Amino acid sequence: MPNVVVIGAQWGDEGKGKVVDLFTQQADVVVRFQGGNNAGHTLVVGGQKTVLHLIPSGILHPGKSCVIGNGVVVDPQVLAREIDALKSRGLLQDDEQLVLSLDAHVIMPWHQALDVAREQRMGEGKIGTTGRGIGPTYEDKVARRGLRIRDLLDEARLARKVKERLPAAREELARLGARLDADEGAIVQQYAQLGKKLAPFARDASLWLHRAIGAGKSLLFEGAQGTLLDVDHGTYPFVTSSNTVAGNAATGSGVGPTAIDRVIGITKAYSTRVGGGPYPSELKDATGEKLRQVGGEFGATTGRPRRTGWMDALALRYAVRVNGLDGIAVTKLDVLTGFPEIKIAVAYRCGDKTYEEMPSDLETLEKCEAVYESLPGWTEKLDGARRWEDLPRAARAYVERMAELVGVKVVAVSVGADRGETIVLENPFLAPRRR
Question: Which residues constitute the signal peptide according to the record (predicted)?
């Protein structure tokens, strides 16, 4: 069985959780390799809705192992609450089912305070951060002054590191006109207790994964956010603080790149974006509002409304390139039911110049307008479709055109929120290995 990476091919919120949950049936291990609790994966199984922010969505499957890799930044309070919530529902009864990397960095109270204070100070130049402390935590990681899960397990070490970092954080907050009310002793006590709660799950995740691969286990690497929010390859600076592309699956989990066999990108049948930044196919009219309402386009983490627009073939083709996608899974096709005309952005126009590939310069991209190709819509409801042939002819033609424009095949199509409302055309775990 191959090892598969599943990533977001747009600006996040593509429905990765549902697709990961579906393909987990063939995997033995699900690995989260980047991001933090600024990402929410929403799943509906048997009519019951579950929102997970840190624990991989594979946890809903009995007998599957889930790993939070070293590339994730962990808010231990959020993780502890997720664990308790799952256990209260009869899930995660075996602590061995969850592995938490000792080397994952920890979101501390000053990270959250700094995140909010900096965003407020930026005014109209806001990035659109969730205020969860993700960026400042990655910043401390790169500056080699961060705290990791292993530090929470040793109270003396934790106290020393808090003492070293807290004064500088307070100074910066004061310059920003903000403050952190919690005192040093209280922080150490609280996070030492959280360390004790998380200790049963904490281990050398890289070694654990190495042994799992050696034992013939099949891995599914679960990305958070989306390609165009990647700190290197996204619409910088309107990006998240980690690498969201498939290549980071290796770095963020501690396995070698040769362990990865296939890469699948998830895309909505239209597009959405949260926060600031260029978005050439955005719809600021009644059509965009209809997409938002019918699609339930409100953040799983923040509840804030998402910006909506037509499918952008240039952005998706870019995602195919930087991730090396083998295929795409299309979600929320059912949301487009009832639109008499459906459009796809096939080029950008900026002044007298036309782009057929996504420009890398942000200021150029901000000036671009989408050039559309129109396709006929359909009125039939899709929630009962379980085979490709069950879809209306116009819906099939739309998906086929998407695949043609981006140059990769479609492996799955989602026609509803529930796990079973998905048409699988090719399961990446059952397809032949690339090498």
Answer: none
